[in-house]
Amino acid sequence: GLCYSFTTPAEFPGFLVPSVYPTIQAAIDDASDGDTIWVADGTYTGEGNFDIDFEGKAITVRSENGPEKCIIDFQRERRGFNFHSGEDDNSVLDGFTITKGFAGESGGGGIRCTASSPTISNCIIVGNSAKDYGGGMCNSYGSHPTLINCTFSQNSAESTVPMLGNGGGMCNLVNSNPKLINCTFA
Length: 186
Hints:
This protein is 4% helix and 33% strand. The protein contains one helix and 20 strands. The chain has one helix at residues 24-30; strands at residues 15-17, 36-39, 42-44, 60-63, 70-73, 81-83, 92-94, 97-99, 102-103, 111-114, 119-121, 124-126, 129-130, 137-140, 146-148, 151-153, 156-157, 170-172, 179-181, 184-185. The strands form four sheets. The chain has a seven-stranded parallel beta sheet, with helices on one face. A six-stranded parallel beta sheet has the order 3-5-8-12-16-20, with no helix packed on it.
């Protein structure tokens, strides 16, 4: 015999950055397997837009209009993307310029894959650096990412320790074997 009143929210507008979610990481945090995150044109910097972690989710993070219009600038402060939770080819990164990432001893200034094998397509990985391994990208511990239509340029890996500083564009360590399809290294 009691009366109750409630309201329901409008239909979910989608995983849209920055119109619904302020950062790429915030959208990933709320996403579930099978979701697609759409990132609008622009340049993304700062907290929530570096050390981006897919958290082992089978999601797609895609720019709306390609890498020339969607730039993630890490301002030489941090790494770009960090795949380290067993991501497989169902974890997709598509259509970004990934630039000015920096990594210390663990390598992978732009992208790091540790025991993970995501799909990375239509990306420009440019101007990233690492202290030891893989300025543009470092794959280690059985990582087998698939890269399609990606361009690597002006990336570097340097070290003051002899025998280190390998793979300015990409370094593959400890049983890692990426699959490269129509990729360019300059």
